[in-house]
Amino acid sequence: MKILANDGLDNIAVEELKKLDIEIDLNHYDDELLINKLKEVDIVIIRSATKLTSKILEKTKNTKLKLLIRAGVGLDNIDIEYAKNNGYIVRNTPNSSANSVAEFVIGAIVSLARFIPIANFTCKNKKWNKKQYQGIEIQGKTLGIIGMGNIGKLLAKKADALGMKVVFYDKFVNKCENYAYLSLEDLLRTSDFISIHTPFIKDNFISTNEFNIMKDGCYIVNTSRGDNLDEDALITAIENGKVAGCFMDVLKKEPIENEKLIQNDKIYLSPHLGGATDEAQQKIGMEIVDIVKEFMNM
Hints:
By secondary structure, the protein is an alpha/beta fold. The protein folds into two domains: 2-94 and 278-295, Rossmann fold; 98-269, NAD(P)-binding Rossmann-like Domain (Rossmann fold, 3-Layer(aba) Sandwich), CATH 3.40.50.720. Helices cover 38% and strands 16% of the residues. It has twelve helices and twelve strands. The protein has helices spanning 11-18, 31-38, 54-60, 80-85, 98-114, 116-124, 150-161, 184-190, 208-213, 231-239, 259-263, 278-295; strands at 2-5, 23-25, 43-46, 67-70, 89-92, 142-146, 165-169, 180-181, 193-196, 218-222, 243-248, 267-269. Strands 8-7-6-9-10-11-12 form a seven-stranded parallel β-sheet, with helices on both faces. The longest helix is centred in the C-terminal third of the chain and has 18 residues, at 278-295. It starts with a strand and ends with a helix. The mean pLDDT is 96. Pfam families: 2-Hacid_dh, 2-Hacid_dh_C. This is 4-phosphoerythronate dehydrogenase. One of its GO terms (molecular function) is NAD binding. InterPro entries: D-2-hydroxyacid_DH (IPR050857), D-isomer_2_OHA_DH_cat_dom (IPR006139), D-isomer_DH_CS1 (IPR029752), D-isomer_DH_NAD-bd (IPR006140), NAD(P)-bd_dom_sf (IPR036291). It comes from Peptoanaerobacter stomatis.
């Protein structure tokens, strides 16, 4: 059996797969090279960098390739409908990176509340902006979580432990422990901090109308999918004072292309780091090993 890990794989997982007499290719391929390589393997493992579109999968159907594994949560870079309709098995690793992302969001909330990234930058440029960067405490503030899945639940517990009031909106869930469920409009209207944890819903799920509903001076964290957030509407909301700041770990175009995001001091950016911890990658790797064993009927 052959596996292509086109965006890499944790070393421990690689060694475990080799014990199963599996040949693993850890190189990265694009375009026609990717298509040709996919025809030679039984399983492909991808992260966010590789996209398995219907055009690619059309050229690899009726070959050895049967199992498509997304090392992570989001599946928007795989054409799931086409894959399932043409005999492919699609799997992901929804549990492994949840804690890492939840911890990252707590860091983002504190960073926004206390101006930590911009204060670091200006201080290193010999600007002592102590008065300019007087922040707020997060204790007693309302955190609105949009999407109460694995990440949302872990974030809620961590925020609750820090003294935040947690409310949530979810399209499919309206009860979760002792946290208050609100409609999306009520959550936007009452939250001091808003954190998005849904899969891709639709392009610009949070846009001008949603920003207008939000509480004046609120903060936003997006670690879900870049397309969920209207970047142009966000910049307008920040410029008119509706939104005090935003931390974006995901973008519409990665690597970043939107110069307006780069130039705005109230927008903090990171290169999709939510699940980028040693622990998360090890968990993802072992979850993939289990998926492969199941596929092999072991």
